[in-house]
Amino acid sequence: MSGFSNSNLKIERLESDEIPLHTASRSGISNMAWDLLDRGTDINQKDKNGLTALHLASRHGEINMVRLLLARGASLHDKTDEGNNALMLASFRGHEDVVELLMDSGANFNEKNYDENTALHMASDRGYKDLAELLIVRGANIHDKDCEGYTALHHAAIKGHSDVVKLLIDHGANINDQNNDGITACDLALDKGREDIGALFEAEFERTLDKYIALLVIVIKENSSENWTNIIEMLERNPHLIEVYSRTTNYQSALLIAVNQRSTAAVRLVMMGANMNRVDKNGQTALSIASNSYNELIRNFFTKNSSKDVIP
User: Fold this and answer.
1) What is the rounded distance in angstroms from the CA atom of residue 153 to the CA atom of residue 63?
2) CB hemisphere CA count around 205 (13 angstroms)
3) CATH number of the domain at 203-304, out of 3.30.750.24, 1.25.40.20, 3.30.720.210, 3.30.365.10?
4) Where are the alpha helices (DSSP H) in the chain?
5) Half-sphere exposure (CA, 13 Å, Cβ side) for 147?
6) What whole-number distance in Å separates Cα of residue 30 and Cα of residue 67?
7) CA-to-CA dists, residue 296 to 225, 284, 305, angstroms
8) pTM, 2 dp
9) Spatial CA neighbour of 169 closest among 191, 192, 202
10) How many other C-beta atoms are found inside a 10 Å radius of the C-beta of residue 281?
């Protein structure tokens, strides 16, 4: 099961043989660090776990020390033995001010560690809502997955951080994303007994369904490439909607609407998995309608890809 802990992030215990610059950096002793650097101490020297002075200052939230080290040329991009950079270490501990400073200094907020976790994964897993929002606003990829296929939404849901779940959904996180085992964030939350988080997902399912049906109604009224593009893009994010229809769409799915309009969107819909043999209320299938289409591309495509199964 995914998630973070001090053990799997390798937040290393400091040893007695720690070099003076590292002691100064994690403790925020600026004058000591400055003096050591003036004497020639390597600012990017690593300890046995791959931690630099900047890593330690960032992890411990010592923003003035972080500012000093950056001014003296510390590398933003060095990684620990676990692949964590300074931004990730600060994010794991929830040091929002340090994260912002590092990003302002050019840190890559979409960089991944060796488990393919990003700073947003860490903030979401730990329940740091304000930090997660800062990362998203600055451009963090909300859809990135780690090595187990977990998105930030998976991490927030499995840990029960309802405020972070809502934040991620409000910023466009795909509630249908599955991890490597085919499990969604909603599945994880319900498995943990978090019905409150399950309700957030249910509300989003309903909003998404209403929005999709509204798009179908719009394209019925106005057959345009722009309207069909909107539908295709929504189905790419929500493939489970592809067979949806309602009374307001005259009980027609997107594919039936497309073939009736002789739109080439019908070809794309079939390629996305729409069933061309589903029967409408008049007993016609998209295949039978397409066979009479004046659009040769649609007619030939459907004929070539026809199957025997007919679904009422």
Assistant:
1) 29
2) 14
3) 1.25.40.20
4) 20-27, 30-38, 53-59, 63-71, 86-93, 96-104, 119-126, 129-137, 152-158, 162-170, 185-191, 195-221, 225-237, 254-260, 265-271, 286-291, 296-304
5) 8
6) 10
7) 18, 19, 14
8) 0.77
9) 202
10) 10
Residue count (the chain): 312
The DSSP secondary-structure symbol of 13 reads: P
Q: What is the pLDDT of residues 58-114, one digit of tens each?
A: 999 999 999 999 999 999 999 999 999 999 999 999 999 999 999 999 999 999 999
Cα separation, 100 vs 105, whole angstroms:
9
Two tokens at 65?
Answer: 């020390």
Q: How far apart are the first and last CA of the chain?
A: 41
Structure-token match 């992030």, residue found: 9
Token representation of residue 204: 């989003």
Handedness of CA 61, 62, 68, 73 (dihedral sign): negative
Q: Which CATH architecture group holds 20-200?
A: Alpha Horseshoe (1.25)
Written as six digits, the tokens of 121 are: 């994964």
